[in-house]
Amino acid sequence: MDQIEAQLKKIRTKLDDVPAFQKAEDVTKVPKEYIALGGGALVLFILFFGVGAGALCNIVGFVYPAFKSFEAIETQARGDDTQWLIYWVVYAFFSIIEVFVDFLLYWIPFYYPFKAAFLIWCMAPQTRGAKFLYDSFLKDFLKQNESRIDAAMDSAAKNASVIASEAVAAGADLTAAGVLAAADMSKKDDTDKKDE
């Protein structure tokens, strides 16, 4: 029991630096270490039992990195900019792969806890997992396929432009047809009133 109380004191000491936990403790009258542990247990429950796990993983993958990217943009140092740019490249690559194999991932037990751990490993400044993946694999892959990727992007942009112009033309045709139908209906109503 003393070991548990010692660990709770350590957690409380670390949480003393986080004003949000102090406010939560003041409002709820629940010790902040219990709030933190309860929140952690809730996150683990969501991850392991899948209820909202995809959304939670997306939050893990976006919120902290987005904030750190904002901070990196606002500082004069260049190293942190590079770290977060590499993270976003790795995250985008991972997300693209995930889209195409999503139907298989459904069958992998505990996929979301592994995904959350992977994203934390990628973003953590202590591990620099994204930089490791980028330097070990992704950089060479992207450099080898850069011209093919550029060609695919150009083709997609042209196709999107054609589709958008066709949609605008179809919309204009539909609008013109609607206006003509309304005009014909108005003329018919005027003719019917005169005949009466």
Automatic annotation (TrEMBL):
The keyword Protein biosynthesis does not apply. The keyword Transmembrane helix applies. It is a multi-pass membrane protein. This is Receptor expression-enhancing protein. Keywords: Membrane, Transmembrane, Transmembrane helix. One of its GO terms (cellular component) is membrane. The chain crosses the membrane at residues 41-64, 84-108. It is found in: Membrane. It comes from Minutocellus polymorphus. The lineage of its organism: Eukaryota, Sar, Stramenopiles, Ochrophyta, Bacillariophyta. InterPro entries: TB2_DP1_HVA22 (IPR004345). Belongs to the DP1 family.
